[in-house]
Amino acid sequence: MRYGKGETPRPVAIVGGIRTPFARAGTNFANLSNLSLLSECFKALVDKYHLKGKTIGDVAAGAVINQSRDWNLTREAVLKSGLSLETPAMGIQRACGTSLEAAINIGNKISLGQIESGIAGGVDSMSDVPVFYRPELAKSILSLAKAKSLSDKIKILMGIRLKDLKPAFPAVTESLTGLSMGESCELMAQHWHIPREGQDELSFKSHQNGIKAYERGFYKDLIVPLNGLSQDNNLRADTSIEKLAKLRPSFEKSSKGTLTAGNSSPLTDGAASVLMCSEEYASKNNLKVQAYLTHCEVAAVDFTEEGLLMAPAYAVSRMLDRAGLKLQDFDLYEIHEAFAAQVLCTLKAWESESFCRDKLKRTSALGSIDRSKLNVAGGSVALGHPFGATGARILATAAKLLDERGKGRLLISICTGGGMGVTAILEK
Predict the structure, then answer these.
(1) Residues 93, 63: contact at Cβ < 8 Å?
(2) Burial (0-12, 13-18, 19+ Cβ within 10 Å), 335
(3) SS3 track for 168-234
(4) Do 378 and 203 form a contact (C-beta atoms < 8 A)?
(5) 20 to 30 A from 278, CA-CA: which of 24, 77, 175, 181?
(6) Could you tell me the pTM of the whole model?
(7) Backbone angles phi, psi at 223, to 5 degrees
């Protein structure tokens, strides 16, 4: 990473990545856990880059929706991957930016000379979410396990009430507002006057770009088949603007509602991973470098005052200043499509003189981007969005896109729950 003063940081090379297909929750991966998915993904990366039995400097990965049994998720996946058991690993979580944050963490270690190689990844299974019960039931069960006499056990069992047995499921809502991400993004769309038509158009383009990428074989070496699935099963070749326009709003049921199942990313199962290293490690191990991770930035906003998913607008602005670049100085853009509306809100914010002046403290607007350079291999609305895996999916895609071009610069922008944003720049 290029930051700070003094010694020049080492370049951070991205060798490439691989992922499982992304499956809509409750379909092909319905019986697979986070550990199963991440293990299979790591195995595929090990096979792809001939890493079996080798020791990697460090592995960072994580999930957003975790089971309590997966308290050591990343390390357990490494133990099943074929890597040397001497390869260390750690869990990390920054909501939907988890695996990009993991890559930044690994990149920093490589840049500082702490490690020569590393793997970044992420996973989420929305088919295998934890089911919770009232705290009173948990306390009773723990007391039951400790009870020694039959009478004590009967007394504890008699104290369990029927309502204690009612399960609760994790909700992707914000504690400060009580709103889901979709409800929050609906408010953003209203604030920025983002029309339904624009959201549907971006979503249609996302599907079309994904289909074209598959047709030309772009994903052939980026996806490992699993459980009878060889490509993302949310991707629709038969969708159209007309079909998208017929869908009912999902979050705001009144006439103001614009976000639908068609222009929002679906609940998804999947895992993704990326191999990163120093230039010396790549040369020594005959690994081709696809691209370099050169800059990164994270930001957070007070989303009780601003839109929940607007933090990337701030992060990108700061990152551009650090890099000495303009928003237009990129050959490609990968902006995570949590919702089509979120992408459009961010683009509109960058085009706004008042937002850039008052919020970003700039003298002028960042300006617009060439939309033909946006998510050219498909985005999250079409491909799916396993929360913890999306960053690594985007990073692997971005590195390959730059490698195909032979040179260039690419901007990555990911919004997250909790009002945060994770961004990065790749170069070749």
Answers:
(1) yes
(2) buried
(3) ECCCCECCCCCCEHHHHHHHHHHHCCCCHHHHHHHHHHHHHHHHHHHHCCCCCCCECCECCECCCCC
(4) no
(5) 77
(6) 0.94
(7) -130, 135
Catalytic status, residue 385 = yes
User: Cα separation of 425 and 413, whole Å?
Assistant: 9
Torsion 309-382-396-81 (CA) sign: positive
Task: Give the span between the Cα atoms of 21 and 42, in whole angstroms.
Answer: 14
Least confident of 46-50, 176-180, 351-355: 176-180
Q: Do 100 and 392 meet the contact criterion of CB atoms below 8 Å apart?
A: yes
The string of pLDDT tens digits covering residues 55-114 is 999 999 999 999 889 999 999 999 999 999 999 999 999 999 999 999 999 999 999 999
Distance CA 299, CA 315 (A): 5
Burial 45-79 (b: 16+ CB within 10 A, else e): bbebbebeeeebbbbbbbbbbbbeebeebbbbbbe
Q: Quick check: helix, strand or coil at residue 367?
A: coil
- CA dist 168 and 227 (Å) reads 29
Active-site option among 96, 185, 296, 356: 96
CA 17 to chain centre: 14
Q: Is the predicted pLDDT of residue 144 greater than 90, yes or no?
A: no
Which residue in 185, 345, 356, 415 is the catalytic one? 415
The Cα–Cα gap between 216 and 221 comes to 12
First-to-last C-alpha distance (Å) of the chain: 14
**Active-site annotation holder among 207, 295, 336, 385:** 385
Q: CA nearest 124: which of 102, 95, 104, 88? A: 95
Query: Which conformational region is residue 66 in: left (phi greater than 0), alpha (psi within -120 to 50 degrees), or beta?
Result: beta
SS3 257: coil
Statement: residue 1 has pLDDT above 60: no
Paired tokens of 269: 């199962």
Crossing angle of helices 340-351 and 311-323, in 10° steps, is 50
| CA-based R_g, the chain, Å | 22
Contact 80, 42 (CB under 8 A): yes
Task: Report the alpha-carbon distance of residue 390 to residue 62 in Å, rounded.
Answer: 11
